Amino acid sequence: MLSPTKAALDQGASGPDAATPGDLPPPAPLTSEDCAVFLDFDGTLVEIAERPDAVEVAPGLAELVTALSTRLEGRLAIVTGRSIAALQDLLGPVEIALAGSHGGEFRPGAGCAVEPLAEPIPAEIISTLERFAAANGGLLVEPKPYSVAVHYRHHPEALEALLTCAQGLASAHSLALKHGKQVIELAMPGSDKGTAVARFMSLPAFAGRTPLFLGDDVTDEDAFRAVRGLGGIGVLVGAMRPTAAAARLPDVTAVHAWLKAGLNPEFQGKTQS
User: Fold this and answer.
1) Residue 20's pLDDT is what?
2) Which of 43, 105, 106, 271 could form a disulfide with 216 if both were Cys (CB 3.0 to 4.6 A apart)?
3) Hey, which pathway is this one from (predicted)?
4) DSSP H/E element including 100
């Protein structure tokens, strides 16, 4: 059986940053022999909701990722923009590898302590954005340990002013500015998904394997480029757009089906999409 990397590349996904005008092939079926799997959360494992705390986690999702991590001998990690604490509030205390806050916090495996990969976001950055949000219709500010996000889904008219404010803060404090799906986020240096993937791939459990990263947002592009540099592929989830990914799945349901197909048939019957 072809590895997911080989299959996707053989079907024509190419280019330095893969701003592909046409569609991308789906990833080949997941095998346990040589892969390491990295999963975004929002928009990849769960549908994006109106508010970060309003997402619906499918029954059996925690069991699915835990079982797949076991099958891959620990070579599976969720790499999310959420804090690890916020992720576990939704998913439960899953015993797998995790990276939260876009990689600012890092848990190398089940039972391991969380390690910081960045400095905490300064309190004055959060308070400045909270004042801006209050003065612009009540935007939702989401503080995290190593970043802060401002959601403008319900106030798209505030985007231009929000970008100006965020760009000023990013320049003054040497922060990374990330523009995701109706959200602007400021993150401390070292807090990005590509850095987290590279860190995982340097660990003995992951080293030498073919990395795959599944994600839906432009904030996942750092990880797509990181896995490509390590001989793996990114898998874009959702509608086609310019991307460094080399394969695509259409939606969250397709992601669940692809993950389940990597497990034993008897487990597949016990989980629900």
Assistant:
1) 46
2) 43
3) Glycan biosynthesis; trehalose biosynthesis
4) strand 97-100
Triad 249, 255, 256: Cα angle to 5°? 155
29 and 157 part of one domain: no
Q: Residue 40 in contact with residue 237, Cβ under 8 Å?
A: yes
Provide the number of structural domains found in the chain: 2
Q: Where are the beta strands (DSSP E) in 108-259?
A: 115-116, 140-143, 147-151, 176-180, 183-187, 210-215, 233-237, 247-249
Task: Measure the CA–CA gap between 225 and 244, rounded to whole angstroms.
Answer: 6
Q: Annotated catalytic residue: which of 10, 40, 192, 217?
A: 40
DSSP string covering 104-146: TEEE-STTPPPEESSPPPPHHHHHHHHHHHHHTT-PEEEE-SS
169 to 122, 129, 132, 136, 233: CA distances (angstroms): 11, 9, 12, 17, 33
- Considering the domain architecture, whether residues 44 and 155 belong to the same structural domain is answered as no
Is the four-CA dihedral 88, 53, 167, 126 of positive or negative sign?
negative
- Which region, left, alpha or beta, applies to residue 25 given φ > 0 means left and ψ of -120 to 50 means alpha? beta
pLDDT band at 118; cut points 50, 70, 90: confident
Residues 33 and 163 in one domain: no
* Domain region containing 143: 123-187
pLDDT of 71 > 90? The answer is: yes
Same domain, 109 and 237: yes
User: Which tokens hold the place of 20?
Assistant: 């592909």
How much is the pTM?
Answer: 0.83
Our answer to whether residue 192 is catalytic in this structure is no
